[in-house]
Design brief:
This protein has 235 residues and is of the alpha+beta class. It has helices at 5-28, 31-34, 38-55, 62-82, 86-93, 107-112, 117-126, 168-174, 178-187, 225-234; strands at 97-101, 104-105, 135-140, 146-150, 158-162, 165-166, 196-202, 206-211, 216-219. The N and C termini lie far apart (89 Å).
Length: 235
């Protein structure tokens, strides 16, 4: 019996750890599986360390696993609640940045992300791109992957409102202002960004709105006379 007891303890710890991890993923969401943000990646490392450390430590029981998972889950949920603040969300999750814009490399974003040209070329080759002449825009995502817009293809869409707040990086990418976003929101029957879960603009197609109630509306962008005059002056 004394010979079998350690193995029974390991089995109980392992089963408890697996149940605890499944509960953690159920509470925090399936995004943890994809590790789409730095927070998700850290969570995966911490959970593995918690379960592994307790599993092979005879001085710690399955209750230690449960306690550690409860504490980590509570802390994780607190962090996610704090990310309702745009500033904290940007700090914790990061954001997508352009490595190449209109065929021109952005060296500042290369240095900021400690990215070398050979690493960048490797990421492009994984997308089936073998020459810089084949790309128009390249986005470096928060999870370390790249999104490539090949030369000659239409521009992508822009996320302009997220969780009731205007996305500044989206404005920079599409070259629009907060005044323009607020005007489009009101033109389509909403009072402010606070009414929206998200707002996406796809040039040439229109605006995609989602409210906090889950309602979806496909809107349009009305062009004002002053914008038409501005375009004509540039011809």
């Amino acid at each position: 019996m004394e010979f079998i007891q350690p193995y029974i303890g390991i089995t109980l710890k392992l089963v408890t750890g697996m149940i605890g991890i499944l509960a953690f993923l159920r509470i925090t969401g399936k995004a943890q599986l994809a590790q789409i943000t730095p927070l998700d990646t850290v969570s995966a490392f911490v959970i593995g360390a918690l379960v592994g450390g307790v599993l092979y430590n005879p001085d710690m029981s399955m209750w230690h696993i449960l306690f550690a998972l409860v504490v980590w889950t509570a802390f994780n949920m607190l962090i996610r609640f704090a990310m309702r603040s745009a500033r904290l969300r940007h700090f914790i999750k990061g954001e997508s940045v352009f490595l190449v814009r209109n065929g021109v490399i952005n060296f500042r974003n290369f240095k900021r992300n400690s990215l070398e040209m050979e690493q960048f070329r490797l990421l492009l080759r994984q997308k089936g791109i073998f020459s810089m002449f084949e790309v128009e825009d390249v986005l470096f995502e928060a999870n370390g992957a790249v999104t490539v817009l090949p030369t000659g293809k239409a521009s992508e869409s822009y996320l302009l409102v997220n969780n009731g707040e205007i996305v500044e990086s989206g404005l920079v990418q599409c070259g629009r202002s907060q005044v323009w976003v607020l005007r489009v929101i009101k033109q389509n029957g909403f009072n402010s960004p606070a009414d929206l879960f998200c707002m996406e603009w796809t040039p040439g197609k229109g605006i995609y709105f989602v409210t906090y109630e889950g309602n979806v509306k496909r809107g349009v962008v009305n062009v004002d006379a002053d914008e038409i005059e501005l375009d004509n002056s540039q011809v």
